[in-house]
Amino acid sequence: MPARTGEQYIEGIKKAKNNVWIHGEKVEDVTEHPAFRNVVRSVANLFDLQHKKPEKMLYTSPTTGEKVGLSFIAPKTKEDLVRRREMMSEWARFTGGMMGRSPDYLNTSVMSFGTAEEFFAQADPMFGENARKYYEYVRENDISLTHTLIHPQVNRSKSQSEQKDPTVSARIVEKNKDGIVVKGARLLATLGGITDEIVVFPSTLNKASVQDDPYSMAFAIPNNTPGLKFVCRESFDTGRNQWDHPLSARFDESDAIVIFEDVFVPWERVFVCGNSEICNRTYVETNAIVHSAHQVVAKNVVKTEFVLGVILSIIDAIGIDKFQHVKEKASEVMIILETMKSHLFRAEQNASIDKYGNMTPDFLPLNTARNWFPKMYQRVVEIVRILGASGLMGTPTQADFENEEVGQLVDRYMQGANINGYDRVQLFRLAWDISLSAFGGRQALYEYYFFGDPVRMSNVFYDLYNKEPYKEMVQEFLNRAKSPDKPIVTK
Q1: Of 1.10.357.20, 2.40.128.630, 2.40.50.100, 1.20.140.10, which CATH number belongs to 288-471?
Q2: Which residues pair with 231 in a beta bridge?
Q3: Judging by DSSP bridges, how do beta strands 270-273 and 58-60 pair with one another?
Q4: Domain covering 6-285 in this structure, CATH number
Q5: Full-prediction pTM beyond 0.70?
Q6: Where are the beta strands (DSSP E) in 279-415?
Q7: Which residues of 147-173 are buried (b: 16+ CB within 10 A; e: fewer)?
Q8: 402: helix, strand or coil
Q9: Helix ranges restricted to H, 236-323
Q10: pLDDT tens digits for 358-376?
Q11: If 220 and its partner were Cys, which of 32, 124, 199, 267 is the partner (CB 3.0–4.6 Å)?
């Protein structure tokens, strides 16, 4: 089966009847439920976009000869990396970078796992074969994925094996000749319930000990597997039209608690089983962390471009381009954008072939960007709030403009320096959805913790950074003062 259309994606999750809960009710059809139908159609539009721009978004499968999504490619050249990034940027532009878990994010990780067969085979050759076959299956069928990485926040100061109730976090409770049985919960599956399958991965950041082996696993199963439940947070799509809520009425991805009630996972879908040592090494040694970071940085470049465009449009709309502090704040965002683009360029230009034969970006600039951007995004949306000011509250609805009695009045009194009232309010409603709505608040929190706790991430960055050349530079400088022809005089 080649790359899917949006209609095929919708039909697939409609038939699957995933066990999804929201607002205290079980969802009968996620494709029509008010909390999900708009984002489902946005994801469908991404699938359709592949067919509208096949030369940029599809490539020929190495196994079937069919045209499949370019985000699945195992890159062999720098040109492949650039092509993949351009494809991912097309999807990001469609959403303004506001969908952090568009399908390409996990496609890069599954590719990394699938081409690192020998890594998973260390525990059992079967696991390596499973990873390779799953990558091929997902690629050839254009499967949409959600994933879960972390344990519930019960007592963060203790490991899972030390918790007062060690059965809260999802764990292996049985192994038999056919597979494993998993019970407990995991956080936090974005797009949970409106995708085809879920991949349970080890954490990218938190390390486990041998006592945590029952919690140490990696596998993939269909989202309609018996015993699997998705309990979703409150929807930020409040049912308003796209003019009033231009982002939240399109791209509220939903985040779900994933509950495993004695869920059976067949052996052919297991990649890691009860092995904390393998789990701790998975993301780094398969280079999944590098390829996923490549997608994230590419998405964040587009996201910054989009928000910068909103900021510049506000400046033009209300004629504040003559104020120095306005230019200074807009310049901050421009500098953030150009810095992110530089990190991305360096990562691609310094790419090299890894042990699995994949052209892999230089991780240092990507790692720098993924540590820096979460903090910078908070500043970017703050600048939207500062420059939008009271205009972010003076935002009538589309219905007000369409009303015969007040419509013309609202249009007149809401006009800007270079824009009519209708268009100015529409622009400011977009700025509000970025910076002040529930959707915008979720975006800020989401970016801040995208790859994990920023403090832990910075500590890992420090530990892995090659510090010796800089210390040696200082020592060499100091050693010059100890030259034999200039003896040091001491008192």
Answers
A1: 1.20.140.10
A2: 21, 257
A3: unpaired
A4: 2.40.110.10
A5: yes
A6: 352-353, 359-360
A7: bbbbbbeeeeeebbbeeeebebbbbbe
A8: helix
A9: 248-251, 276-285, 288-318
A10: 999 999 999 999 999 999 9
A11: 199
